[in-house]
Amino acid sequence: MTSIQHEIRRGAYYDSVVLMQLQRALLELQGVEDAGVVMATAANMELLEDSGLLVSGLEPRPEDLLIVVKATSELMANEALAQVDAILKHRRSSATDAYRPRSLESAIKALPEAAWVLISIPGRYAAAVARQALDHGKHVFLYSDNVTLEDEVELKTTARERGLLLMGPDCGTAIIDGVGFGFANHVRRGAIGLVGASGTGLQAISSTIHQLGQGISHALGTGGRDLKGEVGAITAHQGLDLLAQDADTQVIVIVSKPPDAEVAASLLAAARGTGKPTVIDFIGYAPPVGRFDNLIFTTSLHETARAAVERVAAGLDERARRRHGGQRRPGYLRGLFAGGTLAMEAVRGLQAFVGPIHTNLTVPGAIRLDDPLVSTGHTVLDLGEDVFTVGRLHPMIDNDLRIRRMRQEANDEHVSLLLLDVVLGEGAHPDPASELGPAIEDVRQHSGVEVGVLLVGTEEDPQDIDHQREILEAAGAHVTGDTISLVAFAAETLEPGGETQWPTVSSTALSAPVAGINVGLETFYDSLISQGAAAVHVDWRPPAGGDDRLMDILSKMKTSRPDTE
Amino acid sequence: MTSIQHEIRRGAYYDSVVLMQLQRALLELQGVEDAGVVMATAANMELLEDSGLLVSGLEPRPEDLLIVVKATSELMANEALAQVDAILKHRRSSATDAYRPRSLESAIKALPEAAWVLISIPGRYAAAVARQALDHGKHVFLYSDNVTLEDEVELKTTARERGLLLMGPDCGTAIIDGVGFGFANHVRRGAIGLVGASGTGLQAISSTIHQLGQGISHALGTGGRDLKGEVGAITAHQGLDLLAQDADTQVIVIVSKPPDAEVAASLLAAARGTGKPTVIDFIGYAPPVGRFDNLIFTTSLHETARAAVERVAAGLDERARRRHGGQRRPGYLRGLFAGGTLAMEAVRGLQAFVGPIHTNLTVPGAIRLDDPLVSTGHTVLDLGEDVFTVGRLHPMIDNDLRIRRMRQEANDEHVSLLLLDVVLGEGAHPDPASELGPAIEDVRQHSGVEVGVLLVGTEEDPQDIDHQREILEAAGAHVTGDTISLVAFAAETLEPGGETQWPTVSSTALSAPVAGINVGLETFYDSLISQGAAAVHVDWRPPAGGDDRLMDILSKMKTSRPDTE
User: pLDDT band for position B437 (50/70/90)?
Assistant: First the structure.
């Protein structure tokens, strides 16, 4: 009769490859119908239950190893469990005979030229090893997931201060000078450099670039959370900087889930600053523009690869030039729009290229104004919203509200730029420039603000569009015909936020020959060797044998020492 | 000495043009420095305060008219206020001498051929007039804002049942057979038909189309909330249907703020069903695809206009054909992905073209799964998420979890399609198809599900991509090389949700000559006349003289009558 038997190994540590191999070996034993070898987390227990492998009454701790065998009889099941130690021992004796230091220190002595440490041990141990690697001046490829956001911020802040790269945590892929770390496809060397918070995104793009006949200079993963506000894209900024300076990289690709608004604006500013054509796929994020200076926005991985290859083909001559505009001004912008959709498109562009925008519209990433009557920071208002139009004509007909608000905004000493839309056509004010023009002239002269106007209409509209444009320009406004030109004007007019300068990332990051120390999954070591890179695998064991209490004490002893390095 | 004096007119109704004109007339009086004439809402009171026009101690009701005058002396201010009635009277006597019926009924008798009623009276009165117009079998252009969502749903449901269009509320623009309603630019007649929940969006696109040398067949506004879940895009669906059948319309444009996911999927399905090239700008919404059958996605108003003009130029030959695939199947899909980014791109595509997706990823519009171990409806899982990888290898290395889950999903009788990704390269499983292939064959044979696989890699990868593809295809899987092809396969495989058939919109909506009855802003009447359309302006007054209590009683008497029309 079918029987399910189990064994719990309290606090035992084995790497995941060993667990997979143990499960497979058990399945091959006589009479065994199914087997599960898992760390006893709640999710894994539920998965065992779904597979009909749960023994009731079990209460293991999440850090315990649970081995379950389902066999044709109780005897068979118990016989299989009795083999576990032999299987684990056999597995170990079959390991290669390469030198396997037991500590990171010994590994570094054995391969001092290694610029990289690859870490793929379980998350709860990973941050400590990464910290150690940084202390030794090594760049880190941190594959491990289940690392806390706090640890990530601390590790990346440390890395940045020391001019080191910390890719990850949960970084699936990288290609450094032709050598793949973690998961990486075999792709041609070429002129396109990638940086991304998206492992399979980088893989799909690099594979497609290869299929289209181009190749990769370097591909730098950052870990999936790098572009979150808390992390501030530390690694993406470093990666972008490396690729900007790398002579082999002609075109840059950035791929990530949609970043936080502030992070997006600073990263896009940095991307513009590289001066290299840069293709951006913030998956599901669509700025109101296909191209902006040297930036090209795409909405799918496939299209991203294609656009990057096309940019390489276009060659040097077609490269976008960095703009060197006139004098830039500190201060905030205030957008006073009559058209809701125009305001929305402006918000989406401005938050990408200027910074976070406060608004009475609902736009992902923008900050909702508590009170639309009070502006703060960069603010864009839709003055046609219901709250403004009770018993009052729409601002496309009646300019009174807008002119009052213009004066109010211009009186705010922190404001240096006003943006307006003027929409012509049937139903609209018969001559808006005749009222807005003098107001523009007035605020420019008395408050020194610049004014940008988006003018919408045709030469057949009753207001005479050329005449309207002339009046607005004579009043000193910069007049554009589409939203993105207005956004570009704003980006060129306002001073970018002060960027802190960090140490340049050590050139060892991308320089050949690639050498690495591997802590964790042996397959990643095998992969480095098979790609011709120098590598040492550390026969890593958790500190204190994986005992939580002891580990906690050890870690407290460490963090309480004075930070004297 | 400067003095501020005021007058409150309790519950008085004047249309907004009159209020604007009164304010301007007051400003021209001797000694007057500033003046405000507003309905006394909280927002308007705050605006008065900002202009230094607030008299303290005032407590008007929001429905009261507040007239404030700031003058060089108390005498001057009071003299100005004393002129108010004379100004209002003068204004009236200067009106044109065209026939001005006092009721909608009389107007309809005077212009029975009018297919349209344009309504721009204050929001709290507007729904009742719209209802009246629908009762008379008229299409409605409802410019008024401040109409409740409940009223909108009720009005549109009624309109749909009767084959009538109700554009709005808060519908800023429309062009019907060359005649602009509300705000509309003078644009060339042409081959592009627009439908949109975005007034200035429609204006900007139609103006740009004109500037690029093409023109507009019809432009149909829907009101800004039409694509919300509560409304279900009733008007957009009707508009799309009209444009699909309109012989003059060769290319369709849809513009809207990002719709709710379910609404987007149904509207995109309808757009595919038109068979006409359709350019879609769901502002800020970017499906993982530039084109999908006859649909072209854009991310800015300017690009939308350009794409539409290009599609007309491409002509009939290049029109996308409607697909007529093989047999479709009812049921749900389950996507089991190893790559997080690939899963995310798939979710974004599937929710656009298949329907709402449950997922353990954070994707705008998608439904977050409570428990990633339990699928429901259409579900897409990232099996590489932290919860799945504690003490277990990543699914790109270890197929065990995925194969178990495939079996579990296939056993769900509501499931008819499984989607997988297979990512090759360094670090990944050395031969994934050897394990996934048999599992695919098994679930196809035993559960009758279809299987689609996204295969990522290059021919230089260690796994031999051609061999992997062969095994997967031999097992019966449909293998694609990019996400959007996988999404297309899913959309072609699954049966679309049952669409209810509604009465066709009466052809009077778009047929010439355009004739309309105007209730509200006189400028809209003037505009119809100046464009050569037949029109009658109703000299509308609020029921019960705008008295809320009386209006309430009247409205209750109306709604309690049996619905016998």
Answer: very high
How far CA B426 is from CA of A141, A181, A226, B441, in Å, comes to 15, 8, 24, 26
To the nearest whole Å, the CA of B500 is away from the closest chain A CA by 31
The chain-wide mean pLDDT, for chain B, equals 89
**Predicted local confidence at residue A10, as pLDDT:** 85
Residue ranges of alpha helices (H) inside A448-509 are 465-474, 483-493
Q: H-helix or E-strand containing A288?
A: none
- Of residues A212, A288, A287, the one with CA closest to residue A251: A212
| Cβ atoms of B338 and B319 closer than 8 Å | no
φ, ψ for residue B60, nearest 5 deg:
-75, 165
Residue A391 and residue B527: Cβ atoms within 8 Å? no
**Contact: A187, B460; criterion CB under 8 Å:** yes
Spell out which residues of chain B touch residue A411, defining contact as CB-CB under 8 Å. none
| Interface predicted TM-score (ipTM) | 0.84
- Distance between CA atoms of residues A298 and A318, nearest Å: 19
Three-state secondary structure along A114-179? CCEEEECCCHHHHHHHHHHHHHCCCEEEECCCCCCHHHHHHHHHHHHHCCCCEECCCCCEEEECCE
Q: Which residues contact A213 (CB under 8 A, 6 or more apart)?
A: A309
Query: Residue A562's pLDDT is what?
Result: 47
Q: Is the pLDDT of residue A123 over 80?
A: yes
Cβ–Cβ gap B391/A338 under 8 Å? no
Distance of alpha carbon A283 from alpha carbon A285, whole angstroms = 6
Provide the residue count of chain A.
565
Q: Which residues on B lie below 8 Å from A532 (Cβ)?
A: none
Chain B contact present for A348, CB below 8 A = yes
Those of residues 406-465 in B touching chain A at CB distance below 8 A are: 408, 421, 423-428, 456-458, 460-462
CB contact under 8 Å between A391 and B16, yes or no, is yes
Give B146→chain A minimum CA distance, Å. 6
Contact B300 A339 (CB under 8 A): no
Nearest to B47 among A172, A373, A457 (CB): A373
Distance separating alpha carbons of residues B359 and B363, to the nearest angstrom: 8
DSSP class per residue in B436-452: HHHHHHHHHHHH--EEE
The answer to whether A42 and A36 have CB atoms below 8 angstroms apart is no
Burial class (CB in 10 A: 0-12, 13-18, 19+), B156: buried
The pLDDT tens digits of the residues spanning B285-294 come to: 777 677 888 9
| pLDDT tens for each residue of A59-79 | 888 888 899 999 999 999 999
Q: Residue B563: which pLDDT band, with cuts at 50, 70 and 90? A: very low
Q: What confidence score (pLDDT) does residue B438 get? A: 97
d(CA A138, CA A153): 17
0.80 cut: is pTM over it?
A: yes
Please list every residue in chain A whose beta carbon sits closer than 8 Å to the beta carbon of residue B531. 426
Q: State pLDDT tens for residues A343-369.
A: 999 999 999 888 899 999 998 889 999
**Subunit contact A198:B341, Cβ cutoff 8 A:** yes
Chain segment A449-487, per-residue pLDDT in tens = 999 999 999 999 999 999 999 999 999 999 999 998 999
* Cβ atoms < 10 Å from Cβ of A79: 17
Q: How large is the average pLDDT for residues A258-284?
A: 90
Tracing tokens 């297919």 back to the chain, one arrives at: B115
Residue A523 in contact with partner chain B when CB distance is under 8 A? yes
pLDDT tens per residue, range B306-343: 999 999 988 754 444 444 345 667 899 999 999 999 99
Cβ within 8 Å of residue A114, ≥6 positions away: A107, A108, A138, A515, A516, A517, A534, A535, A536
